[in-house]
TrEMBL record:
Residue spans of biased composition, Polar residues class: 1-19
UniProt xrefs under InterPro entries: CHP02466
Pfam family, one: 2OG-FeII_Oxy_5
This protein's name: 2OG-Fe(II) oxygenase
Organism: SAR86 cluster bacterium
Region (Disordered): 1-32
Lineage: Bacteria, Pseudomonadati, Pseudomonadota, Gammaproteobacteria, SAR86 cluster
Amino acid sequence: MTTQNFEVESIKRSLTSAMNNPPSSPPNNQKKEGLRVLFPTLIYEAWYQNYQAKKESLVSFNHKLRDEDTEGQRISAAQYPNGYTSYYSRTDLYKLPELAELVAFLYKCADNFAHQHHWDTQNFEPVINALFTNINSKFSGHAEHLHPYSHISGVFYVKSEVGSPAISFKDPRMGRWMMPPAADGNRAENTFHANILPDEGKLLMFPSWLEHGVPPNQLDSERISMSFNFEMQPKPKSES
């Protein structure tokens, strides 16, 4: 099966599951005056245990990958100015044995993400389909984008000095941009872009449809991160 056909079949499975299991409306049991929360966008955060002991090897891994990836360097020079990303050349880093411990951490977080969102984890499970590296030298950043053909996306911070640019999430409710009222933009419910600072050893996980970006790095030191995607796939049928 080609990649395109696999993606189409995945979308069909998701739509079929949604039609066969229509969501119920939120319970109408609020008995007091006040605000009701609807359509929240949930971000998962976690920290890699004992990261400082593992940092040097992960930094070295990413530098070695960049130095040996001549194809990725060539494309990055045109598509990713002042930086390097293996997005165009190596997105299968999750298959490498030297990253097995990190990938296990990603799987644990993806499981938590799915469970805490109350997704159908009895019949589906998160399966990683991409892991790639990003090295942002001075003046290198990420334009706003999203991650198609996935359910869960995220970033893991390998190296990030104080003053490194924050990841910026864009409010997905486009209708809000039509006529916004004057409000306290520092509050999460009012902002149009929510910024979260990077932290070495920290993971952020979010819905793949959520647009995000990173402004250019203004520091002389590199900002190294690893991005990833998961898809909720049917669990293998157990043989009776």
